[in-house]
Amino acid sequence: MERKMTFRQLPKYEPEKRSEIYLALNENPYDFPDEILEKVFKNLDTVKLKIYYDSPSDELLEALACYTGQPKKRISIGNGADEIIYDIFLMFPDMKFYVCPPTYSCYSIFASATGVKLNYVPLIGEMYEKLNLDKLTKVLDENSVLFLPNPNNPTGQLFEKSDVEMLLSTGALIVLDEAYYEFSNVSYVELLDKFDNLIVIRTFSKAFSLAAQRIGYIMANEELIEYYNSLRLPYNVSYISQQLALAALENLAYFKKRTLRIVQERERMKEILSKNGFKLTDSKANFIFILAQDDEARCIVEKLERQNITVRKFEQGIRISVGKSEENDLVISTLIGKSEV
């Protein structure tokens, strides 16, 4: 007798189709440097390619500890920040999970996949720049988890440190997603010294041009890190990915210069578009966010699509990744109808 299998209907992550100028996924516009890549591959230990390589390696933990100022026992790694986020849903199946939309779309996708009910406390303010602290402090407690990107994705704003401390004071587990930290240079990781109910997540995908290598890291108190390591998949980040992450940390000056270039381009785009009538959030990430809805939003997307430029549309507006200077010039001229660079 043939057995019929049934499956739950789950939301699927579906990125926009690739185009000539792809500014939808907040990828770094610059390739991982050839000279650094060549050195990494020249020095690869072929023996380590055939074994189950430690994940994380002690060498990478040392480098991350130096970079973040956190002790090694407070750090682990994941197959991209997304694996860490996914695993946090698995770590606390009996807790109440909250997010503050507009926010990172994968939170809801992963919640559905893991069978977790997600609760929503939307951001407030004309530009979705404020946390609804009145409501959050009422609903959050020691049986709660809150995911909070900082800078926020998709709007790009930073939340105040005092507001984050207020949320931590509720006893809830606060997961600060600092994927775009290098573009803001603002981190609240030092709050780990004060609060045991804090997790900070970062990635090598954005500032270090390593999105395809899938490597993120988590910082938390030692007990949480031990629990995370017991639940995550073993050998979850490959030897080559870890070597590339090490190389990035060994060449910080190089990547900081490129990050500064992206930040300067972001500010240039914000200034020109604002002067020409567009309403933008004060993004501190590697993207800009134009507040627009319905027909206005569709018009923006269609204009850009005619130039083979792909961006991401949200209910609240349009997120545009910062590209190379010439790509940003085309975005600007397409939107304002003239060249102003």
Automatic annotation (TrEMBL):
InterPro entries linked: Aminotrans_II_pyridoxalP_BS, Aminotransferase_I/II_large, HisP_aminotrans, HistidinolP_aminotransfase, PyrdxlP-dep_Trfase, PyrdxlP-dep_Trfase_major, PyrdxlP-dep_Trfase_small
GO molecular-function terms, A-Z: histidinol-phosphate transaminase activity; pyridoxal phosphate binding
Keyword RNA-binding belongs to the record: no
A GO biological process held by the record: L-histidine biosynthetic process
Keywords: Aminotransferase, Pyridoxal phosphate, Transferase
Transmembrane stretches, start-end: none
Aminotransferase class I/classII large domain residues: 21-332
Cofactor: pyridoxal 5'-phosphate
Signal peptide annotation: none
Keyword Transferase among UniProt keywords: yes
PROSITE patterns referenced in this protein's UniProt entry, alphabetically: AA_TRANSFER_CLASS_2
Subunit field text: Homodimer.
NCBIfam families the UniProt entry points to: hisC
UniProt record similarity statement: Belongs to the class-II pyridoxal-phosphate-dependent aminotransferase family.
Protein name (Swiss-Prot/TrEMBL): Histidinol-phosphate aminotransferase
